Automatic annotation (TrEMBL):
Coiled-coil ranges per UniProt: 663-700
Domain Protein FAM184A/B N-terminal: 48-240
Name of the protein in its database record: Protein FAM184A/B N-terminal domain-containing protein
Keywords: Coiled coil
Listed Pfam families: FAM184
Basic residues bias locations: 906-915
Keyword Coiled coil on entry: yes
InterPro entries in UniProt: FAM184A/B_N
Region (Disordered): 79-106, 164-201, 446-502, 622-650, 743-762, 781-807, 872-915
Organism expressing this protein natively: Anguilla anguilla (European freshwater eel)
Length: 915
């Protein structure tokens, strides 16, 4: 539509190829530039909105996690406050609870402050974004999408304000709960005072117990005196006991050997599993190598395609050079054609001058005819009426000749006008065809540019997808290996749980040996996991280096594509220029052919007109001769009737004829001179006009060529700048993504290394604790064996001693054994609770590391909750209930610090030994 309107409004005298002929091209370029600018602005706005959305989501997730942790901590504080009822550790626990509450309140206040800072930062970013949007709105009209995003951001900010208000309310609630906890602590202090008063009564009971112990010592001294009598019987019993112990030791050794065999078989199975895993890893490495070989083959194919494209570009350059040479030849042809046109225009001017001369001659002839008519009239008046018919015939013949000449002149003028109009129409038609073809070439050029952009974009997206798939594969492998390490850690934990069980007098030493072997196996597995982690680190480093190499290849590929695109663009431009040259040549050839045809027609018309004039002159001469003959014949016939008149007629006619001939010759010479002067003047004017038109045409053509080349060069520079910025942005994005991924991999490696070191440290601590436990068990077994021997010695000799032993069952030996077992059980519970707390800390650390991963990483598997290690309850030693009721073991959460097992054992000894 735009092209048709431009054609309709173009004036008849406008030159072909001016800048005014291409308003649609400039409009399309302006629309395309505005479209690209708006696309860039919309992309920037979407990036800002996406970043704000992600920050808001992270903020909401952090708020939810803080709220959940706050509720869990409050619930745990309430549970711990309810469970604390013992008088011995009440004051310390209450003080610790208050300190814990203060720390949690401080942590909550710190999180609230961080939240406020985050809100202030978000508001500052929103204000900056609002100012930026207002500045952009001053330059261009803001679209409805931007207004929607602004409203959404304002709604989210209001939502953030509401969340901060909710956090402040929760803080107030936490403070109120802290006040309630303080009130409960005060009540617990009152109860402690009551219990301390009851402890005074217990002190009296302890004094009585000391008195009973003194009586027991006196009885033991009496018993020692009787023991010397029963040494022989005791020796026999000791021999029997020694034989029984040897048999039990042999059975235990046999069981130990069987257990060693079973463990050896288990280790063999595990070794086979590890070998299978190693084979699987080698297969994965082979697959990765195969993938790398495929990638190298594809790179080689792309290099071959690049070489082919370069060859095509070289051919296009040669074609462009040929087209330039042809353009120079066409310019020379155009100059030659212009010279021919000048020559033809001179010929046309000469023809026009000849036509004017012919018309002047016709006018002179007409004047001569009129003069002759006057003379004929005079002669008719002088002569008789015989010549009247002849004069009338001559007059009619002259009128017919003048009418025929007028008709010939009118037909010639009409033919010239038709020829000029056809030439103008042909010229306008050729201009329109040239304009249409130029528009088509421009459209084809724009379509080729768009297709090149689309191919470059698809290739870039394809490379990004391949890179993302490779990264996902690496992450999946690392996740599988981490899960394998997690399974091995759970297996170690299960074995440790199985190893920790209540100690019996007959099975203490085998349990310790089994625990030692399992610890050695755990150390072996830790070494293997360390080696696996080192291998994983090397693999990750190799993959990172491969990714870096792939990044470099991608950059080279993008640069090659850009060069290819530029070369194709140049080739398309050269093809368009060549097409334009062909069109101009065709146009000029058509014009030359049309001019030749018109020249030939004009020549034919002039020749036919000249032939007709010659024929008319011949006819006129013949008629004049006939008239002279008739006048000569008519002269003798009149001699008899009127001699004077005839003589007068004969005397006048020759003189008039001579004067008439002289006048005719003078008139002819004067007309020829005037025609020659007029012809020279018209030729000069026509030459000046042609020179002026030629200069204007050459100037317009040069201006049009210059504007067109400037426009094309500007388009090329804009496209090159856009492609350069696009390639730079793509390279920066890929660099940023790969750096983030590499940093994420390095962080994961560092975290796994830290986890392994933490596990190793915890295993060392557990090993030390188990060694201490083993030494304590050995001492306890020795004490128990001594107590058993003493009990057997006291129970075997006399019924009176048995009665005394039955009466004194609640005495010191059983109480000490009971206290030792309780201490042993509580120490094991403390070790197990420390291990479970370390396990929960480790799992919490794993969960935090998984949550801290980038969004591009796949979601990690949820960590299993730490299962508390529960020991089976030991059977009571005595039928009567103990004085101090055993409190169930409290499994500490992961955030509370682990207590020292030595201090805990001393505290338990104090609690049990005092009773």
């Amino acid at each position: 539509m735009a092209s048709s309107s431009a054609k309709a409004t173009q004036p008849a005298g406008a030159c072909n190829g001016t800048a005014a002929d291409f308003p649609n091209i400039e409009q399309e370029l302006y629309d395309y530039q505005m479209h690209t600018k708006m696309c860039k602005k919309i992309a920037q706005l979407t990036k800002v909105i996406y970043s704000l959305n992600t920050k808001n989501e992270e903020h909401e997730a952090a708020l939810l996690s803080l709220e959940e942790s706050h509720q869990e901590e409050l619930r745990r504080v309430m549970d711990e406050a309810e469970r604390r009822g013992r008088p011995v550790e009440e004051e310390e626990e209450v003080g610790g609870g208050e300190g814990e509450l203060r720390r949690r309140l401080q942590a909550l206040e710190g999180s609230l402050e961080e939240q406020r800072q985050l809100n202030s930062e978000l508001r500052a970013e929103f204000d900056a974004y609002r100012e930026e949007v207002e500045e952009r709105a001053a330059a261009a009209a803001v679209s409805e999408e931007e207004l929607g995003t602004r409203r959404e951001l304002e709604a989210r900010l209001e939502q953030l304000g509401r969340l901060t208000e909710q956090l402040e309310e929760e803080k107030e609630e936490a403070q109120a709960e802290a006040e309630r906890a303080k009130e409960e602590a005060r009540q617990l202090r009152e109860e402690r005072e009551e219990l301390s008063r009851s402890a005074a009564g217990e002190l009296a009971l302890r004094q009585e117990l000391e008195a009973l112990r003194e009586e027991n010592q006196r009885l033991e001294e009496a018993c020692r005196r009787t023991v010397s009598e029963l040494e022989e019987v005791q020796r026999e019993e000791q021999e029997a006991l020694r034989r029984g112990l040897q048999e039990a030791l042999a059975q235990w050794q046999q069981r130990e050997q069987e257990q060693e065999k079973a463990q050896h078989a288990l280790l063999q199975e595990r070794l086979a599993r590890m070998q299978e895993d190693l084979e699987a890893t080698t297969k994965r490495l082979a697959e990765s190598k195969r993938h790398s070989l495929k990638a190298q083959e594809r790179i080689q194919d792309l290099e071959g395609q690049l070489e082919e494209a370069r060859r095509r570009v070289a051919g296009a350059e040669t074609e462009a050079q040929k087209a330039e040479e042809e353009l120079a030849v066409a310019k020379e042809r155009l100059l030659l054609q212009e010279n021919e046109l000048l020559c033809k225009s001179e010929e046309l001017l000469s023809q026009c001058s000849s036509q004017s001369r012919v018309s002047e001659e016709a006018e002179e002839l007409r004047a001569q005819v009129a003069h002759l008519q006057k003379q004929v009239k005079e002669l008719e008046l002088q002569t008789s009426g015989k010549t009247s018919d002849h004069a009338r015939q001559v007059k009619q013949h002259v009128e017919a000749l003048s009418a025929q000449r007028q008709e010939l002149q009118r037909a010639h003028a009409e033919e010239l006008w038709h020829a000029r109009r056809q030439a103008e129409e042909e010229k306008s038609r050729l201009k329109e065809q040239l304009r249409k073809r130029l528009e088509e070439t421009m459209k084809k050029h724009a379509a080729e540019l768009r297709s090149a952009h689309a191919t470059a974009e698809t290739e870039r997206k394809k490379a990004q997808r391949e890179h993302k798939a490779q990264v996902e594969e690496v992450k999946r492998r690392s996740e599988e290996e981490r899960q394998e390490v997690e399974r091995e850690r759970e297996e170690l934990q299960r074995r440790l749980q199985e190893s920790v069980r209540p100690v019996t007098p007959g099975g203490q030493l085998p349990c310790c040996a089994k625990v030692r072997e399992e610890l050695e196996q755990a150390l072996l597995t830790m070494r293997q996991t360390k080696e696996d982690l080192d291998q994983l680190k090397e693999k990750h480093q190799a993959e990172i280096s491969a990714l870096k190499k792939e990044k470099l290849t991608l950059e080279d590929r993008i640069l090659e594509k850009a060069q290819k695109y530029q070369e194709e663009k140049k080739r398309s431009e050269s093809e368009g220029e060549f097409r334009r040259r062909e069109l101009t040549e065709q146009h000029l050839a058509a014009l030359a052919r049309l001019r030749r045809d018109k020249d030939s027609e004009i020549k034919e018309i002039t020749e036919s007109f000249q032939r007709k004039l010659k024929l008319e002159e011949k006819r006129f001469d013949s008629v004049a001769d006939k008239r002279r003959e008739r006048s000569a014949d008519a002269a003798p016939g009149h001699e008899g009737g009127g001699g004077e008149a005839a003589a007068a007629a004969r005397g006048v006619a020759p003189g008039d004829w001579l004067s008439h001939q002289q006048a005719l010759r003078a008139l002819e010479e004067r007309s020829q001179e005037e025609v020659q002067a007029e012809r020279l003047r018209q030729q000069a004017q026509q030459k000046l006009l042609l020179d002026r038109q030629k200069a204007e045409l050459t100037q317009q053509h040069a201006e049009w060529c210059r504007q067109l080349t400037q426009r094309h060069m500007q388009q090329i520079e804009d496209l090159q700048a856009e492609l350069h910025t696009h390639t730079q942005l793509v390279a920066l994005q890929q660099d940023f993504k790969q750096q983030n991924q590499a940093q994420a991999f390095e962080r994961q490696l560092e975290d796994s290394r830290a986890e392994v070191s933490g596990l190793r440290r915890e295993n060392g601590e557990l090993r030390e604790q188990l060694a201490a436990l083993q030494s304590q068990l050995e001492s306890k077994t020795q004490e128990l064996s001594r107590l058993r021997e003493a009990e057997q010695q006291h129970s075997s000799p006399v019924p009176s001693l048995r009665c005394w032993d039955e009466g004194a069952k609640g005495g010191r030996p059983h109480l000490e054994a009971d206290s030792l077992r309780r201490e042993h059980r509580k120490e094991i519970q403390t070790i197990v609770s420390d291990f479970s707390s370390a396990q929960t800390r480790l799992q919490a650390r794993i969960v935090s590391l998984e949550t801290d991963r980038t969004p591009a990483c796949p979601p990690a598997m949820p960590a299993r909750p730490a299962r508390p290690i529960r020991l089976p309850a030991c059977p009571p030693v005595h039928a009567r209930p103990p004085i101090q009721s055993a409190r169930p073991p409290v499994h500490r959460p992961a955030r509370l610090p682990a207590r020292d097992p030595g201090k805990q054992g001393i505290r338990n000894r104090k609690c049990t030994g005092g009773i």
